[in-house]
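Consider this record:
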Amino acid sequence: MRALLILIFLLTVIRVFGQVKSDSVQIRGVGSYYKNEEIGLYAIEDYISGKEKCILQTKVDSVGYFEFKLPRLSTQKLVIRSKKNYAWLYVQPAGNYLVTFPEVNDLDTKNPKGNQVNLVFYRLDSLDINYKILGFQNWVDNQLAQFYHLKKAKPSEYDDKYSKMKKRAADLYGKDTTLFFRYHIKFTFAEMDDLETVSALTRQQKFAQHLAKYPIYYSNEAYMNYFNVYYGNLTSFLSNTVKDKLYDAVVYRSPSLAMAALGEESELKNPQVRELCLIKLFYDQFYEKRYPKTNLMFMLDSIKQFSKFPKHRQIASNVLDRITDLSPGSRFIDYSFVSVNTRDSLTNQKLEGKHIYFHFYDPSSIESQKEIKPLMNLYEKYKEYIHFVTVVVASDSKKTELNLPWPVVELTQNDEFIKRCKFHSSSSYILLDAAGYIVSNPALKPVPNSDYDTIESYFFQIKKLISGERRRR
């Protein structure tokens, strides 16, 4: 049945492709698993923040067909997302694509949180960027498989064969004139050199060979991956003098002083590269203790507004969104409160070591009031394993009489913490792990939702995990 669907699909759309305008991109696909579901096409805005932007949304029809038509796009990587699953493909100007979007890859198991799956392409032109990149990656894998066993046993022989493989690649692909593909090959091997060769180049040699003469290619994943690796943990490669000057620049909240400090490093003479490194450095260091967070945010905002490189304004904006976004997996924002009932001081550091269940309470809401009793029941069962903190969000400065056995904090809707948490509903919750990272936002409530789920299922698993660890000690 699946084969018949694909055959019908191909016969239907091949005729249409001849009518597509030469400056547009068209993607037609079939995915039986996604019938009647929303499906989105996302562009990767930048490879520093990793932020994606939905550029087109449509719906898979009742048979499983979907279609995206876009105006002319530059060559780049896009992501298709539906029902928690996602797959990537490259597109190029005038590209026409026939694909199937599977539920799961053949050798993978289904993950309830979603799977990365591989698209299956049909009638892919040999000049298309997907054909070239997939073919190159397959060629590299096959070549490595022939001598990879020598890596530990005979490292010198391995290095020799690896070098010959790179020369064969130059012979095979050297005449290709597609800039995107040439960058892909160049920086795929640049990153592989660090991972696969025994006699790696020095940092100075890497810079001279791979970065010094190559302009930044923001939308090329292979280039940006290597850029992120090479300039990752940049502070460890800076001289002490530059480190001190950079710290002073952050204290003074001056991007120009920071740029001047980094400019003393030989590999950061190019102002465009230097500013991109500065944005990356601020992002990498935001959750460390080296620099004041508010100063880093101020400087990123300054770059966002005043950088002479338009792409850097966008990247700085995306980084700011990332560090202020309270999505699962990200670190929770800094806070410092004094509980109105227990008089305890509440900070990130003092509450680390246990999961934290933040309860945002609106005293004017009947819904909030009804959740107090089931919340008390949960507290009695799980207080040994989880910190409970209630944040009363009042529309005015009136005190709220709330008799709870755990810490209560009173804030107004205009408080910066409430704005950062994006509190909008009458009652909401956020669950953090023991290290201060967000597990769920919004988290389930102590009362059942429409699917009859409550936060207790999470609490039970936390208790089970901690109890098991204690028994093993």
